[in-house]
Automatic annotation (TrEMBL):
It comes from Pirellulimonas nuda. It catalyses: 5-methylsulfanyl-2,3-dioxopentyl phosphate + H2O = 1,2-dihydroxy-5-(methylsulfanyl)pent-1-en-3-one + phosphate. CDD domains: HAD_EP. This is Enolase-phosphatase E1. Signal peptide: none annotated. Binds 1 Mg(2+) ion per subunit.
Length: 244
C-alpha cells in the first residue's frame, strides 16, 4: 500500500452492520415519515427536502408538481417517499427526508448507531497518525453526522474531518471520487477508499484512489477476481507515518 494521506469510508457494510441500517433505521424512517410530515410541514428544512423530492421525481418544483397532479403536496411527498423506500432507491431527496426523521430518533435516544468494535480505535489511531478521515455515503451528510454523533461508542464526529453524499455524485461513478479528491485537496492516489461494494471500489480505483474491500458479518458474498485487497477489520490497516 502506498502512502495514505486520507481514508474515505463507506458506512453500511463497512463501518456498520447492514442489518442495523435495514432492520432498524429504514423501518424507523418509514414508520415515522407521515407523523414527521404532519408535525413539521412548512419548516424550512422539510421544505428544502420536499423540493428535492419533487426535483428527483422530474418536476421543476413542488408547486409545479402540485399543479400537474392536482394533489395535495404533502401527500405527493409522502407517497413518493414510501415508493422510493419500498424500492430501495437512494434518491437525494429521500435521504434528506430520512435524515430529518432519524434526527428525532437519535436526539431522543431511541436510536443509537451501530459501529463495529474495531472502528472507534482505528479512527482514533488514524487521526493520531495524521490521517484525514472522511465519509462518503448515500445517506445525507445530515444523517451521517447524526449517525456518527450518536453511536453506541459515543460521539465519533471529532475523529472525522468531512462528509460527502450523493450531492457530490453517484457512488458508482469515477467522477464522484475525482470530485471528492479535488475538494479534499489531496491527490487521488493518496486516498484509501474502504467499501463493501465492488462497483464503488472500481469507480474509486478508476479515479486513481487506493481501495480495499471490507468484508463484514452479514455482508453479501462477493465473487473472487475483483482485484481489490480484502480486509475484515480496520485493525488490519495500520496506517502510520502518513501526512500531507
Amino acid at each position: 500500500m502506498h502512502l495514505v494521506q486520507g481514508v474515505l469510508l463507506d458506512v453500511e457494510g463497512t463501518t456498520s452492520a447492514v442489518a442495523y441500517v435495514y432492520d432498524v433505521m429504514f423501518p424507523y424512517a418509514r414508520q415515522g415519515m407521515q407523523g414527521y410530515l404532519d408535525t413539521n410541514w412548512g419548516s424550512e428544512s422539510l421544505a428544502e427536502a420536499a423540493e428535492q423530492v419533487a426535483r428527483d421525481a422530474g418536476h421543476a418544483s413542488l408547486d409545479a408538481w402540485r399543479h400537474a397532479s392536482g394533489s395535495d403536496p404533502q401527500r405527493l411527498v409522502l407517497d413518493e417517499a414510501i415508493r422510493l423506500m419500498d424500492a430501495d432507491v437512494k434518491a437525494t431527496g429521500l435521504k434528506q427526508l430520512q435524515g430529518l426523521v432519524w434526527q428525532s430518533g437519535f436526539e431522543s435516544g431511541e436510536l443509537r448507531a451501530h459501529v463495529f468494535p474495531d472502528v472507534p480505535p482505528a479512527l482514533a489511531a488514524w487521526r493520531a497518525a495524521g490521517v484525514d478521515v472522511r465519509v462518503y455515503s448515500s445517506g445525507s451528510i445530515h444523517a451521517q453526522r447524526l449517525f456518527f454523533g450518536h453511536s453506541e461508542a459515543g460521539d465519533l464526529l471529532p475523529q472525522l474531518s468531512g462528509h460527502y453524499d450523493t450531492t457530490t455524485g453517484p457512488k458508482r461513478e469515477a467522477a464522484s471520487y475525482a470530485q471528492i479528491a479535488a475538494d479534499w485537496g489531496l491527490p487521488a492516489a493518496g486516498v484509501l477508499f474502504l467499501s463493501d461494494i465492488v462497483a464503488e471500489l472500481d469507480a474509486a480505483s478508476t479515479a486513481g484512489m487506493q481501495t480495499a474491500l471490507v468484508v463484514r458479518p452479514g455482508n453479501a458474498a462477493v465473487e473472487p477476481g475483483h482485484g481489490h485487497p480484502v480486509v475484515e477489520t480496520f485493525a488490519a490497516l495500520p496506517l502510520t507515518g502518513v501526512g500531507r
